[in-house]
Design a protein that fits this description.
With 112 residues, the chain is α+β, with helices and mostly antiparallel strands. The protein contains 2 helices and 6 strands, in the order E-H-E-E-E-E-H-E. It starts with a strand and ends in a 17-residue tail after the last strand.
Length: 112
């Protein structure tokens, strides 16, 4: 099993969520976060004064998948969230040792 953490643009959430459902990936945790990457934020002008916004709003998706679904889920996120512009986000993939479904006590792949 793998844990996928995807940081995406907030406006891409619905598209990503709908496309993940189409490939059979329904469970996820969604969190509104702020962050920055290499661009170190953005500069904007308002009424002649320049402002530096260094933490931009992003959306974080946490998804646990079985190993056989990993590539399909990652590819779906990339294709759904990609604009080609700086700030599209990142995907982090980590191993998961075990999962327990609290309601039934099921463990491992059955609990995903």
């Amino acid at each position: 099993m793998k844990a996928i953490t995807a940081i995406i643009r907030p406006e891409k959430l619905e598209t990503v969520k709908n496309n993940l459902s189409k490939v059979g990936c329904y469970g996820m945790t969604v969190t509104e976060v702020k962050g920055r990457g290499r661009q170190l934020g953005i500069r904007e002008s308002y009424r002649g004064k320049e402002y530096h916004i260094d933490l931009l709003p992003k959306t974080r998706l946490d998804i646990i998948v079985n190993d056989d679904k990993l590539e399909e889920v990652v590819d779906t996120i990339v294709k759904s969230a990609q604009t080609g512009d700086i700030g599209d986000g990142k995907i982090f993939i980590l191993p998961v040792e075990d999962v327990v479904r609290i309601r039934t006590g099921e463990r491992g792949e059955k609990a995903v």
